[in-house]
Design brief:
disordered C terminus, alpha/beta, 312 residues, binds zinc ion, 13 strands, single chain, 11 helices, 23% strand
């Protein structure tokens, strides 16, 4: 059941007739995918195909929510010293913070290099990436979580975009594991991540698969699909449709993962296997030969982009 704060935000947003515009492209026409618990809707943008919860959260709300030590779940998410010692002694193996399977997939696609752990939380992923041999940095908007990681794990975690400026164009991979579905607004995020990448860099994204067989079977009542913590819902089609316009060559997979098949599919650009699992994996590599969009939305209105305008 939703908690009371969330419920009251939803009711207030509905009373204020919150706009149903897309939190990615701003387009105002969309389709209702499903209704949940009378108050929530899952909607799909008619232009970019992103699915999102309505009522939406605002960027300002999320920013303040993540700065509080006392937000729901925040303090319990960070381990005390005994729990941390245990996690470290296991190198996180077999715990819910174990990213070894995802890092093994990364090893197959990019065996070494500089990695940005985007949405690093308290740094457990940044640390595991570093221990796997990567030059790893974290980015996390929650200052309490980032401070915890810097202090307790000794990892580099930035909390503000301006701190990333010195690293523009230098990362071989931006790793974002179960982060994008938590963002209230997606507009500008892909552009930010692309700006961090080296000329042949890649995004490695993991999100709940809202086009998978469980999502299709249970609809909006599939746990991760339309809830307080997940304002956005992704399927493979969204990434295939939106990332090439931003200069990425895209390959999408879902669990259970077969790293050899994935490597073969990425390196030979062959069709992917069935994408029916509960988790979606996206490997999106910068490809300078792909063109950028010929049109863009300005205040919700589609306009042609001046072909003489520089992309970068
Ligand atoms: Zn959209």
């Amino acid at each position: 059941m939703p908690n009371f704060d969330f419920l009251s935000r939803v009711v207030r947003a509905r009373l204020a007739r919150q706009a149903k515009s897309c939190p990615n492209c701003g387009y105002c026409e969309g389709a209702l995918v499903g209704r949940k618990n009378l108050l929530l809707q899952l909607r799909c943008c008619g232009r970019c195909g992103l699915m999102f919860r309505w009522p939406k959260d605002t960027g300002a709300f999320a920013q303040s929510f993540y700065q509080s030590d006392y937000s729901q779940g925040m303090t319990t998410e960070m381990p005390d010293s005994a729990a941390l010692e245990k996690l470290a002694s296991l190198n996180f193996r077999g715990t819910e913070k174990d990213l070894s399977e995802k890092i093994e997939l990364l090893k197959v696609l990019c065996p070494s290099g500089k990695v940005l752990d985007f949405g690093a939380s308290w740094g457990y992923g940044t640390l595991q990436l570093r221990q796997a041999g990567y030059d790893a940095y974290g980015f996390e908007i929650s200052r309490p979580r980032a401070q915890f990681g810097r202090r307790e794990l000794g990892v580099n975690i930035y909390t503000h975009q301006r701190e990333l400026e010195n690293h523009h164009g230098t990362f071989d991979v931006v790793f974002a594991s179960h982060v994008l579905e938590h963002l209230p607004v997606l507009a500008g995020v892909v552009e930010l991540l692309r700006s961090m990448l080296a000329p042949r860099g890649a995004l490695l994204i993991f999100v709940p698969n809202c086009g998978g067989s469980n999502a299709r079977r249970h609809g909006v009542y599939w746990g991760p699909m339309c809830c307080e913590k997940h304002p956005l819902a992704f399927d493979a089609e969204f990434f295939r449709r939106s990332l090439p316009d931003r200069g990425f060559r895209v390959a999408v997979f879902s669990d259970p993962y077969d790293s050899q098949k994935i490597a073969l599919s990425v390196h030979t650009s062959t069709a992917e296997t069935r994408i029916d699992g509960d988790e979606l994996m996206v490997w999106a590599q910068v490809d300078p030969s792909l063109h950028r969009p010929r049109s863009e939305l300005v205040n919700g209105v589609e306009r042609a982009v001046d072909p003489g305008k520089s992309d970068h």
